[in-house]
Amino acid sequence: ETAVFQTPNYHVTQVGNEVSFNCKQTLGHDTMYWYKQDSKKLLKIMFSYNNKQLIVNETVPRRFSPQSSDKAHLNLRIKSVEPEDSAVYLCASSPDYYAEQFFGPGTRLTVL
Amino acid sequence: GQQVQQSPASLVLQEGENAELQCNFSTSLNSMQWFYQRPEGSLVSLFYNPSGTKQSGRLTSTTVIKERRSSLHISSSQITDSGTYLCAMGDTNAYKVIFGKGTHLHVLP
Fold it and tell me: Residue A109: its chain B contacts at CB < 8 A?
């Protein structure tokens, strides 16, 4: 039963374009996350939001920016994509930081 | 260095055999979670187990904080258990969640 929703499932774009990924959770959680899973399958956290407040901003390139309208939504925008941005981007939520996390299905980005 | 080490990196079993997956961490933790990653990439939470032992069907998770390790035991493995198992810990000191590189399990008929 899916409670963390991500759109789109897949996105193919060219270098230099802007992309935006959406994430919504219906669990009533206070904390949401964005992770990047690269070709080696290692999951790395990019951003964490707790009730709309940015908690952790890992050293990701400045072209990445999280956007949150409320605690149920956390979107990810990439201003000018580069080939190394090709990866699967996973959104997750948890009741609070360090609590059990629930993941969305992921968005696979391919940059040509 | 890597703060979360998973072992083995890969494991091949005959159906019916048991599996023991390990997750060792080098810093103090606030949380520990085990996931199964499906072939298409989605993550399924198996256990949230910051300490002690939890069981669900054929799966058992044990976390021993003072020994800085957590394990996932799969009994009587089935072909459908094949996939990648990931552990993730919450780092108390750095206020972030860190994933291991995963154990790739392949169960043969």
Answer: none
